[in-house]
Design brief:
homodimer; about 110 residues; alpha+beta; Alpha-Beta Plaits; four-stranded antiparallel β-sheet; about 40% helix; globular
Chain lengths: ~110, ~110
């Protein structure tokens, strides 16, 4: 399994709504994530500055991203989410996220 | 299990050395972490700005922190690490870390 950590920046004026949306993620979006290998997947927020951290485990991140890119529900979800984020340069959030480098691991 | 995500800020001039130290964490430090419930524990770094993210799973974070706080090896390790970080206000890194809020989870 790859352990993946990525960061995004949520606009401070949209923090409350961003959190609310993630309490009611569409069931077909959850199902698509499950089917494409996104497991043990958390999103963590620092409300002080809008830093959003994603952590997930997947057999192959490129396959997991490609799998979601092929799902119609993901296109709708990412289009809905895009305005919540800073500095995506026109990319969807799941294309514009910045992956961090794992420098230590203890099982 | 609690899923825990925390952030720290590594001083940019110390990034290389910080990474190097984590390739050779002392065996007795690793053993202390294991014995006090730090599992599936990763550190992730963004070298562009020194953002350091920790992710771990533990039955009880307060117990895991208290367990390490009672270990002599942890005092030595944290004293060694403190100069690598920004803005700890005199706290050890494992006391000064800022925990993020989990806003979404998919098993």
């Amino acid at each position: 399994m790859e352990r993946v950590c990525f960061r995004l920046q949520v606009r401070k004026e949209h923090l409350t709504e961003y959190v609310r949306r993630h309490q009611e993620v569409w069931p077909d979006m959850l199902q698509a994530l499950r089917e494409t290998g996104w497991t043990n997947y958390s999103l963590f927020l620092d409300p002080s500055d809008g830093l959003l951290i994603g952590y997930l485990e997947t057999p192959d991140l490129e396959a997991a991203k490609a799998g979601m890119a092929a799902r119609e529900v993901n296109a709708r979800w990412q289009a809905d989410m895009a305005p919540f984020f800073e500095a995506l340069d026109g990319l969807a959030p799941d294309e514009g996220f910045l992956r961090l480098q794992e420098i230590f691991y203890l099982a």
